[in-house]
Amino acid sequence: MFEYNTYEVLVKSALSRVSNDIDKREGSMVFNGVAPSMAELAQLFIGLDFVFKATYLLTAPREYLIKRASDRNMAPKPASPAVFRAECNIEVPLGTRFSCEDINFVVTARMEEADTEDAVSHEVTCEKAGALGNGYTGHLIPVEYVNGLTRAELVELLVPGEDDEETEAFRQRVLDSFQSQAFGGNQADYKEKVLAMPGVAALKVHPVWNEGLRPSTLIPGDEVTAWLEASVGALEPAVAAWLTAVYTAAKDKLLTVGGTVKLVLLAANNTVPTDTLIDEVQTAVDPTENAGEGLGLAPIGHVVHVTGVTPEPVNVTLNLTFAPGWSWEAVQSYVTGALDAYFSELTGQWSSSDFLTVRISQIESRILSACPTMVTDIGGTKINGKEENLVLGPDSIPVRGAVSG
């Protein structure tokens, strides 16, 4: 906004106010008297331009974006550690530390339900927060000697670790908070609370959910009223009393599904959430054993069902024309890499889309871009055996299936 107020412009403007009868050339007494103050003024304009940008959410640097967001009681999601299931030959004490390559893990809980005949399961947490711990697998080495321990290894990622929320993602979340006020268990309220939980990357909220049952379908119409009046006299007294009570409640709009909510989760790094993550969110939002009682984040009367996205295998059949010296075996890794990148990009759009569409045109163009010197042409591409785009369900994401070329 103030970028035109440069030192040169300010000096010229100041000297223009001095009479031309006075020497104001560079090096003159007038010039030397004006120039230093204009240099300081130019610095003030530079600072003022920064203050202007830092004031608004759209342009504020991260540090000042955080300060502005604090006015709405919002903050960037901090980095969270990866949580794994580890198997040992014996039960080890909580707090026992292990190393795996160049990173350490600590035992945080027992997982008796996951024990096998020859292995004892433990929950172990990465000591370093962030996504860096997600890719580790294999043998664990105890930092200190554990009597009787002969085997320990990471076997399953339970909750993916996440890095600090990126600035632009946080900025968008703050801006979105102005579109709908989070309050009292509305959609914005569920999104704000659940997305703040470790391991959750995206969320869809299905209100008044009950396997597709709509509240209006519970209200009896004239045909139902006529049938009941004609039939109730022929029923057993107990049956007639029960049916009349249900009819009356439905007629008075006392039977609804307004308190049912379905939350569909996408885990960190655009992955399908594990049962452990789903259980943690379910317990935090609305514990199953106390459903609807308001003992979690959900309001009293909201019965919440938490589930994960459905991975939809996408099998791709390709008809490739190879450049001289190239074959399917040589380009296969490039092709699968291009498909994985495309599917990951699609998955990133899942929470803001009614449904995702896997497009043949996108598959072909991305493969040609990934293999510009290896593949000269592509055609006849099929998705799951059909030469047509694949439209996924509202709670489904694409995952690479079989790929042939």
Short description:
Helices cover 33% and strands 23% of the residues. The chain is of the alpha+beta class and 405 residues long.
Instruction: State the major sheet.
Output: 7 strands, antiparallel
Q: Share of helix among residues?
A: 25-40%
Oligomeric status of the shown chains?
Answer: single chain
Mean pLDDT: 90
Q: Give the distance, in angstroms, between the N- and C-terminal Cα atoms.
A: 55 Å
Radius of gyration equals 32 Å
**How many β-strand stretches?**
15
Tally of separate helices = 10
Overall SS class: alpha+beta
Q: Unreliable runs, pLDDT <50, ≥5 residues? A: none
Q: Which strand-content bin applies to the residues?
A: 15-25%
Q: Order of SSEs, N→C?
A: HHHEEEEEEEHHEHHEHEEHEHEEE
Describe the global form: extended
Question: How many domains, in number, for the residues?
Answer: 5
What does this structure look like?
- The chain has 405 residues and is of the alpha+beta class.
- It has 5 domains: 7-55; 81-159, Elongation Factor Tu (Ef-tu), domain 3; 187-209 and 259-308; 212-252; 311-403, no CATH class.
- Helix content is 33%, strand content 23%.
- The protein is built from 10 helices and 15 strands.
- It has helices spanning 7-16, 29-55, 62-70, 167-176, 187-195, 222-231, 237-251, 275-285, 328-348, 360-370; strands at 83-88, 97-100, 103-110, 120-126, 138-139, 141-142, 152-159, 200-207, 260-267, 303-308, 310-322, 357-358, 375-383, 390-391, 396-404.
- The protein has a 7-stranded antiparallel sheet with strand order 5-7-1-4-3-2-6. A 3-stranded mixed sheet has the order 8-9-10, covered by helices on one side.
- Strand 9, helix 8 (275-285) and strand 10 (303-308) form a beta-alpha-beta unit.
- Helix 1 (7-16) crosses helix 2 (29-55) and helix 9 (328-348) packs across helix 10.
- The longest helix is centred in the N-terminal third of the chain and has 27 residues, at 29-55.
- The protein starts with 6 loop residues before the first helix and ends with a strand.
